[in-house]
Write a structure and sequence with these properties.
alpha+beta, 4 helices, 8 strands, elongated
Length: 172
Amino acid sequence: MRRVTVPVGDYIYRVDDPSQSIFLVRSGKVELTTPYPETGEGIDASRGPGHVFGEVEVIDGRSRTSNARAATAAELMQIDREELMEILYERPEKSLILGKSTFERLKELFSEESLDSELARLREEMELSVRNAVVAHESRVVKSHNGMAAIAVPIILMLALAVGAYWFFHRG
């Protein structure tokens, strides 16, 4: 476990980064965001003092599904995956540092005992799929707009030259 100080606006991690640590907010505020190519970043959640973030991806081994950015100057505790597993399985008495909300979420997502956990997993997968579809769509729109601009600029220049030539030769 180590302390990390993050200035306002700096990223703790970005989408698709490997998930190697979770973070506990000691002070400040962290925003979890999704980057959209056309409309910028959308804020999915905010985490303040006492809250943990980045835990689900670390436990299930997938890469980051969102950005984490300091909304204000923040002091965090970074807990690497190996240390997290030790806390969870070998020293459960120390697991209180992670907070009740994290355990409820993990229990909901990873418990094999109920239909609710299966629905929670499906809901999480659906949210990611929808978010990825929106990002992909916006990427296509941006490329399309850039392609249209590449076609439109020469046409506008040719029209301007034609109007200028007509005016030059027919003035008077």
